[in-house]
Amino acid sequence: MTPEESIALIKANLAEVRYCTPRSSTMLSSKRSGYYESTGVLPQLENLPIAKIGQLVQAGCHIKILLADVHAYMDSMKAPSELIAHRSEYYKFLIKSMLHVIVVDIDTAKLEFVRGSSYQWDKDYTMDSRRLEAMTKLSTARKAGAQALDEQYLNVDAQLGGIDQRKIFTFALENLPKLGYKKRAHLMNAMVPGLEEAQKLSSSEPSSKIGLLDTPEEVSKKLKKAMCVPKKVEGNGVIAFIEHIVFLVFAVKSGTPTFAVGQRDGDFWFTKTF
């Protein structure tokens, strides 16, 4: 794969890419990218960009997946540290299993899992956190500062996240240089709307999302009940699911994003491929 092909694959199907200069693009195609995974509630299929991680692996990136145990604990302080540790191991197993399903060779992939607690209690990290708090609003630093500092302490060239994290990425772009650290590129996935209404997927509405532990029967039932207005693309959860999940998985598995649908014409069934 040429550097140009690698860069095109890195940027494919993203909602937005920020600070991806020619120089940083070259670095991305040969070095690494960072992706951040929370260890709170079990993530929904639509919010876990496994196929995109698979594309980054195919592009030759070194992927670091942060098992954010400290972030998860600080967010609510409700779950005991022992439970969060077990969740971290479970998420690691879950992510590796899904990558295996979409035919990513995890044995040869440049894939690394890092626990936040392995460095986020260190003196230097803590000192940088206090410096950010002194330069910005305390509430902003507490919300966005840790994720910004992760880019530096994981030694990555880019961070992958949802478009809903744009403000956090902007915070990192503006404030890391003030600490003497370089800017990183930010790769943002589109947010997939729920299956029942035109809004961001909500974990509080079980029928509007496809869970990682759903059975094939449960998935089929949810898709049959989904709102799919004819000729309406905006806010259509089914079309968005096909575009951002199904097509991307097929692109990783076979190199061609295809989608086959069984249709009936009188007494005959045929398959139409898109």
TrEMBL record:
SUPFAM superfamilies noted in UniProt: Nucleotidylyl transferase
Keywords on record: Aminoacyl-tRNA synthetase, ATP-binding, Ligase, Nucleotide-binding, Protein biosynthesis
An individual GO BP term: tyrosyl-tRNA aminoacylation
Pfam families (alphabetical): tRNA-synt_1b
Enzyme class: ligase
Swiss-Prot/TrEMBL catalytic activity: tRNA(Tyr) + L-tyrosine + ATP = L-tyrosyl-tRNA(Tyr) + AMP + diphosphate + H(+)
The protein's name: tyrosine--tRNA ligase
Organism field: Fusarium torulosum
